[in-house]
Amino acid sequence: MAEGADMEHLQEAFKRFAIHGDTKATGKELNGKNWAKLCKDSKIIDGKNVTSTDVDIVFSKVKQKTSRVITYPEFLKALQDLAPKRFRGQSQEEALMSIYRLVEKGGPTNTGVTKVTKAGAVDRLTDTARYTGSHKERFDESGKGKGREGREDLVENTGYVGAYKNAGKYDDKLKGEK
């Protein structure tokens, strides 16, 4: 098997992933989601030899029938099952040591997490170039707000429907006919 120091690092990695994302976790049991995350973040899942389906199948094999989590000994058994599949050209012992090294290296990563914008919130929220639809109508070309005219539909008692193109031309037309 592995040396004592290596097993301590492996157990620390197990605990880090066991408590990841769960404030009530004790670090003694690893759920299926965190097991898949451990395999993905540690690069056990390579897409060719080991896929996420393989990882799920191994998890189901090593856990107790009624349980939804695996313990540390079951975790070691799961790694033992995945090692020859991940490192095909190596012996069972070499493959197991290689997979232990992969797991020991890392902890949970935060990939795909939304980044904080560099610009201030006020700059981002008041950038009128990003406004669409009716909100765009509230600002003039320079980006300055139109005030009350931009927020409310002001009633014009001209007798024409709003946005009518020929508004005010009827009187001119009558004058032209006389």
Q: SSE layout and pairings?
A:
Blueprint: H1 4-19, E1 29-31, H2 32-41, H3 52-62, E2 69-71, H4 72-86, H5 92-105, H6 121-125, H7 148-151, H8 170-177
Antiparallel strand pairs: 1-2
Helix pairs in contact: 1-5, 2-3, 3-4, 4-5
Report on this model:
This protein is mostly helical. The chain folds into two domains: 2-105, Orthogonal Bundle (Recoverin, domain 1); 114-152, no CATH class. It is 47% helix and 3% strand. It contains eight helices and two strands. It has a two-stranded antiparallel ribbon with strand order 1-2. Helix 3 (52-62) runs antiparallel to helix 4. The longest helix has 16 residues, at 4-19. It is rod-shaped and about 105 Å long. Residues 132-154 are annotated as: Disordered. Keywords: Cytoplasm, Cytoskeleton, Microtubule. One of its GO terms (biological process) is positive regulation of protein polymerization. Residues 134-154 have a biased composition (Basic and acidic residues). Its main location: cytoplasm.
